[in-house]
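Researcher: Quick one. two chains, 233 residues in total.
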Amino acid sequence: NAGVTQTPKFRILKIGQSMTLQCTQDMNHNYMYWYRQDPGMGLKLIYYSVGAGITDKGEVPNGYNVSRSTTEDFPLRLELAAPSQTSVYFCASSSTSTGTTDTQYFGPGTRLTVL
Amino acid sequence: AQTVTQSQPEMSVQEAETVTLSCTYDTSESDYYLFWYKQPPSRQMILVIRQEAYKQQNATENRFSVNFQKAAKSFSLKISDSQLGDAAMYFCAYRSAPWGGATNKLIFGTGTLLAVQP
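Model:
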């Protein structure tokens, strides 16, 4: 089990560029999440998904889009990157199946800098 | 809205000693979960311990234990016999119950940076 994997680990973007952060989990979890962590702060929820084909906004969704075509993958799209999107991005997953603990498992993060 | 407050930006402990990290939260809900996550320099978020609000017994995981005071809305983490590998940022987090949608999101505090001195 690899758990939750994210690519890339680091990325530098210019203002106005676009990119997709990839997230994959191999635990068959139905819930997946995207958080961002700004310097010196805790994580804030950007988007989440309760299953394939179902996504919804979190606290800070502006400037981002997501899709969930499969159980395993939950990519985060940045359109027209802005310096305010400089942050570390974490993907997480959890399961709501009977007998599980609903604990969220996190990927290693992607450090994004927008210049 | 729920909030989580960690009032200690930095803490330091000697190796083999005990340290307690503080966390308070604000909520009007009666059923919820509380977590402590560890974030070492690798940035990986690692679950340390969790507590269900309906359980009166404090959770323990090896050298890690919590002091959960529901009435006071306090959830402190005690690390016993501190080791060099415990050095990390520690985040307290809150999650509403029951299941479903945004109520399943974690609300994080701002973190406490723990240094372990040899």
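Chain B has a mean pLDDT of 91.
Researcher: Thanks, that's what I needed.
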